[in-house]
Design brief:
Structural class: alpha/beta
Helix content: 25-40%
Number of helices: 21
CATH architecture of the domain at 564-700: 2-Layer Sandwich
Bound molecules: 5'-O-[(S)-butoxy(hydroxy)phosphoryl]adenosine
Strand order of the largest sheet: 12-11-8-6-7-14-15-23
CATH superfamily of the domain at 564-700: ANL, C-terminal domain
Distance between the termini: 47 Å
CATH class of the domain at 564-700: Alpha Beta
Number of strands: 30
Radius of gyration: 25 Å
Largest sheet: 8 strands, mixed
Length: 701
């Protein structure tokens, strides 16, 4: 591994970030290791393919083939998950019962009676064995200025932060919002909450102040942890001022902890606490709170098809076990690897595969602060070369962007360290899959298209693990992970047997990583996921099972769209647009986009008399969405229409809008339930006009 570039430090941050930088000068890679022996579990690495021996799993399990292990995981979940949890996690008190679940009744409990602490499993157990192993490589925005943080340093930082939170009255069960981009302090803040039993809710630092305050209010957060500014793609982004605006309407917030990512001093108000300063006065030792397996670990807000974003609840033991097991097996993680997941910590991918999975496995994990094109389109691959990354896990939207540039941006960097490539967040198209596999991976690395959700906690369907040399088909998630039994449902709500079928994707058995609830609204959880197909977990996605029995995800079945891998409810965007006084009604749908995957398309009805200046209103609508949600949620298209197509009962027929907007066909399907079919012709004409105007504008530019 490379040492950090000292020359770049002069432009570095202040406060604690600087302390981290200076301490990291001496921190190198882990101590010498016994060749072929895993430090964490003392298992032999030489016999890795097809399945690495599962740590210190009971010797019986470790001798099973993938096929038998999968069979055991679904026929005897108690034995499978029970021995995995016993062997892989450190318990303060061992659980007495593996599971107590009733999907129809909405009850999901794993490892009952057990007590443990997640931060101990992610830090202390590794510090005991290899304190100087690098836990985090903070790949900062400016290439060549990465910072390495060892397990010992991360434990100390986490403990100081935990003590700081405690000294300001944060206790077990309190909610803490974290509004920070990927950085060691963001990770330490998550782990500090876990250490004292507080519940974190990380809010992606691209969300607006209103989106942030909505989440803080829903979770009734007592504190916020943030930093003065973010740095991304060479630009500074003010975060503290966004938090200031948000907390004005959040009476539950008693303290805002502010760290200094850049030199720019933040204006400090009554609630504000300088984070580095209070941490420096705290002890670097903090006792870990023993927590029940089913105590809440974190909330993460995500969009649904209706209403406000929902706070998905994940708990301690089951989530951690599932994140760590999937991290090891799906990506073929081995001791000594440098795991590179470029997702932000604000999404579930960042939680499970930047933080909890890798750290539980004692890995070196990369925190990527920059963008795929900064300072140029070679950034990812230059980073792979410099950090010697072994697994690269990213989003199709970034790949689609990068494949438009010359291959030399990839080829000029040494990618021989790479062993596994992974994709997540949305369907990966064939072109992107092949480019990733053959150009980036030189055709020699398994590429895993991983399907999962905020609600599932970790990967549920992916080509690996599998039997040795099992095929990987392009652009397909393929195989269920241990303990996952996918079911494809037909139109009548019946499981479709056999192969070559397609329908609604459900999962028929609970697994330890699945969400437990929606914060403050368990009934909504039951209604959204468990009621549609009683006895099953409903994913909201469609899927098909191929003639070979492999799973292919076909996309959302509800009004959720996926913009650059980020989930958005069309209802959320409509709610934002509807706040405009000149807009009595809107309908938003998603349409395909060649880089972002999907983009929102808004149909808006304007009040009579506004006719004068629709462009000004449209600009106000764009601003509304950016301030109410986030910039990425702003519709790419606006079409002003006189009326929306509705059924006689008043429901908007989005299916028709989708067809009109994508022009896939002029056959609009069954319109018999439509109240007034002449609306459709009006909309088609308006769209034709809009399309002509856009192409003329494009030509001009
Ligand atoms: C939705 C979940 C899972 C972490 C990132 C997104 C879509 C996710 C795939 C994939 C096709 C995928 C689904 C899913 N999705 N991965 N490999 N192939 N679709 O988490 O924000 O909770 O979104 O993303 O539609 O339901 P999320």
């Amino acid at each position: 591994m490379q040492r950090i570039n000292m020359a770049a430090h002069s432009s570095s941050g202040t406060g604690f970030f600087r302390t981290l930088l200076s301490r990291c000068r001496t921190s190198g890679p882990g101590k010498s290791r016994t060749p072929g022996l895993c430090q964490q579990h003392r298992c032999r690495l030489s016999s890795l393919p097809p399945l690495p021996p599962p740590g210190t799993w009971s010797s019986r399990l470790s001798r099973l083939s993938h096929r038998d292990l999968y069979r055991l995981s679904v026929t005897d979940p108690d034995q499978f998950w029970g021995s995995a949890a016993t062997d892989r996690l450190r318990w303060v008190k061992l659980f007495q019962r593996v599971r107590d679940c009733d999907l129809s009744g909405g009850k999901i409990s794993w490892f009952l009676g057990g007590k443990l602490n997640v931060s101990v499993n992610c830090l202390d157990v590794h510090v005991e064995k290899h304190p100087d192993r690098v836990a985090l490589i903070w790949e900062r925005d400016e290439p060549g200025t990465e910072v390495k943080v060892t397990y010992r340093e991360l434990l100390e930082t986490t403990s100081r932060l935990a003590n700081a939170l405690k000294s300001y009255g944060i206790e077990k069960g309190d909610r803490v919002a974290i509004y920070m981009p990927a950085s060691p302090l963001a990770v330490a803040a998550m782990l500090a909450c876990a250490r004292i039993g507080a519940v974190h809710t990380v809010v992606f630092a691209g969300f607006s102040s209103e989106a942030l305050s909505g989440r803080i209010q829903d979770a009734q957060c007592k504190a916020v942890v943030t930093c003065n500014q973010g740095v991304r793609g060479g630009r500074l982004i003010d975060l503290k001022s966004t938090v200031d605006a948000a907390v004005k309407s959040c009476p539950s917030v008693q303290h805002v902890f502010v760290s200094q990512r850049t030199e720019q001093p933040a204006a400090m108000g009554e609630l504000d606490v300088p984070l580095e300063k209070v941490m420096s006065c705290q002890s670097s030792v903090c006792p870990a709170e023993p927590l029940d397996s089913e105590d809440v670990l974190f909330l993460l807000y995500t969009s649904g098809s209706t209403g406000k974003p929902k706070g998905i609840v994940h708990t301690q033991a089951g989530y951690l076990l599932y994140a760590s097991l999937t991290h090891q097996y799906v990506f073929d993680y081995r001791d000594g690897d440098v795991f590179g997941c470029v997702a932000d910590v604000g999404w579930i991918t960042g939680h499970s595969y930047v933080v909890y999975g890798p750290l539980c496995n004692g890995a070196t994990t990369v925190l990527f602060e920059s963008t795929p094109v900064y300072p140029n389109p070679g950034r990812y691959w230059e980073t792979v070369q410099r950090l010697r990354i072994t697994q690269f896990y990213g989003a199709p939207t970034a790949l689609r962007l990068l494949l438009k540039y010359d291959e030399s941006w990839v080829k000029k960097y040494d990618r021989s360290s790479l062993r596994t490539l992974g994709s997540v967040g949305e369907p990966i198209n064939h072109e992107a899959w092949h480019w990733f596999h053959s150009v980036v991976g030189d055709g020699r690395c398994p590429l895993v298209d991983t399907w999962w959700q905020t609600e599932t906690g970790g990967v549920c369907i992916a080509p690996r693990p599998a039997e040795e040399a099992a095929p990987i088909l392009p652009a397909m998630a393929m195989r269920p992970f241990f303990g996952i039994q996918p079911v494809v449902m037909g139109d009548e709500g019946e499981p479709l047997p056999g192969n070559s079928v397609s329908g609604a994707l459900c999962i028929s058995q609970p697994w330890p990583g699945m969400a437990r609830s929606i914060y403050g609204d368990h009934q909504r959880f039951v209604d959204a996921y468990l009621k549609p197909y009683p006895g099953y977990y409903f994913t909201g996605d469609g899927a098909s099972r191929s003639e070979d029995g492999y799973y292919q995800i076909t996309g959302r079945m509800d009004d959720v769209i996926n913009v650059s891998g980020h989930r958005l409810g069309t209802a959320e965007i409509e709610d934002a647009l509807d706040e405009h006084p000149a807009v009595p009604e809107t309908a938003v749908i998603g349409i395909p986009h060649d880089i972002k995957g999907e983009v929102p398309f808004a149909f808006v009805v304007l009040k009579e008399g506004v006719g004068g200046d629709p462009p000004a209103v449209l600009q106000q609508l764009r601003d509304l969405v950016a301030t109410k949600i986030a910039k990425y949620a702003v519709p790419e298209h606006f079409l002003v229409v006189k009326r929306l197509p509705k059924t006689r009962s008043g429901k908007i027929m989005r299916r028709i809008l989708r067809k009109v907007a994508t022009e896939t066909t002029r056959d609009l399907g069954d319109m018999s339930t439509l109240d007034d079919p002449s609306v459709v012709q009006e909309i088609i004409e308006a769209h034709e006009l809009y399309r002509k105007q856009r192409s003329q504008e494009k030509k001009k530019n």
